[in-house]
């Protein structure tokens, strides 16, 4: 009988995934720190630091990224780029990148799309289908938790709370994100995931071969070194 991956092989794969996550977080902190290296006055930097701490990144690593971005620790030539395009079945895609080589990045993104039934669009071609939204996911499996989260979130300035299967997703305007997050955390509902995302206004159901190809495309894009986030408007079948 064949054997699965060795313990060492699995550990190496986990280490590689952790390094990739750290790289993306460091880039986000570095870019955010360009607008000031103090997380107390820079909301984007504060969000990046919070995500890094949640991923168990050391404070020394975070500080180095902040120094680099604020110009205190050498030059930083990273650029933020956003690509818009389409995947299988006309699914709208927003691909946010950070790179020191835009020529390489656009070539990698275009190649991934072309190999999986997609194509690049022009700037603004799909962005109108998305809205920049604060999104916080909270465990509400305990009795009465859904109602309590709804109450706290709305009082703190959230726009909506969507609950399903013991989980509540709190939606808010980006400028209300920090207040909503602090209110939830103070009440004992620390979000398992919290970020400001590009959320689609409506989702398009995708199934069968198109769904499989789309999943392959999303995985390919997310594996690219320069890609930070990928957003889409597909409603994929449950795994």
What does it look like?
The structure is a single chain. The chain is built from seven helices and ten strands. The chain is α+β, with helices and mostly antiparallel strands and about 240 residues long. It has three domains: about 5-70, Integrase, N-terminal zinc-binding domain (Arc Repressor Mutant, subunit A), CATH 1.10.10.200; about 80-130 and about 200-235, 2-Layer Sandwich (Alpha-Beta Plaits), CATH 3.30.70.980; about 130-200, YebC, transcriptional regulation domain (Alpha-Beta Plaits, 2-Layer Sandwich), CATH 3.30.70.980. Helix 1 runs antiparallel to helix 2 (about 45-55), helix 1 runs parallel beside helix 3 and helix 5 (about 145-155) packs across helix 6 (about 175-185). The longest helix has 26 residues, at about 5-30. It is globular, with a radius of gyration of 19 Å. The two termini are about 30 Å apart. The relative contact order is 0.14. The model has no long low-confidence stretch (mean pLDDT about 90).
Q: What share of residues are in beta strands?
A: 15-25%
Radius of gyration: 19 Å
- Helix/strand class: alpha+beta
| N-end to C-end Cα span | 28 Å
- Mind telling me the CATH superfamily name of the largest domain? YebC, transcriptional regulation domain
CATH top level label of the largest domain: Alpha Beta
The outline comes out as globular
Give me the CATH architecture of the largest domain, please: 2-Layer Sandwich
CATH topology of the largest domain: Alpha-Beta Plaits
Biggest sheet, open or closed, and with what strands and sense?
Answer: 4 strands, antiparallel
**Integer count of domains:** 3
Series of secondary-structure elements, N-terminal to C-terminal: HHHEEHEEHEEHEEHEE
Question: Helical content, roughly?
Answer: 40-55%
The overall average pLDDT, rounded, is: 91
Looking at how many chains there are and whether they match, the oligomeric state comes to single chain
Which runs of at least 5 residues are low in confidence (pLDDT < 50)? Answer: none
Number of strands: 10
The DSSP helix count reads: 7
* Largest sheet: spatial strand order: 3-1-2-9
């Amino acid at each position: 009988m064949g054997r699965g991956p060795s313990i060492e092989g699995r550990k190496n794969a986990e280490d590689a995934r952790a390094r990739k996550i750290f790289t993306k977080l460091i880039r986000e902190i570095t870019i955010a720190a360009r607008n000031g290296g103090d997380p107390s006055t820079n909301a984007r930097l504060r969000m990046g630091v919070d995500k890094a701490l949640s991923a168990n990144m050391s404070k020394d690593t975070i500080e180095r990224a902040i120094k680099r971005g604020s110009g205190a620790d050498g030059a930083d030539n990273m650029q933020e780029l956003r690509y818009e395009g389409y995947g299988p079945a006309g699914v709208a895609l927003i691909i946010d990148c950070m790179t020191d080589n835009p020529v390489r990045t656009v070539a990698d993104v275009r190649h991934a799309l072309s190999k999986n039934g997609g194509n690049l669009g022009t700037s603004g071609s799909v962005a109108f289908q998305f809205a920049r939204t604060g999104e916080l996911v909270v465990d509400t499996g305990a009795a009465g938790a859904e109602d309590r989260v709804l109450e706290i979130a709305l009082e703190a300035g959230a726009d909506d709370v969507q609950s399903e299967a013991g989980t509540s997703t709190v939606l808010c305007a980006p400028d209300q994100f920090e207040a909503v997050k602090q209110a939830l955390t103070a009440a004992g509902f620390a979000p398992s995931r919290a970020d400001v995302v590009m959320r689609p206004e409506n989702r398009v159901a995708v199934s069968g071969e198109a769904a499989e190809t789309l999943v392959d495309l999303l995985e390919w894009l997310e594996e690219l070194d320069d890609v930070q986030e990928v957003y889409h408007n597909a409603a994929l079948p449950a795994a």
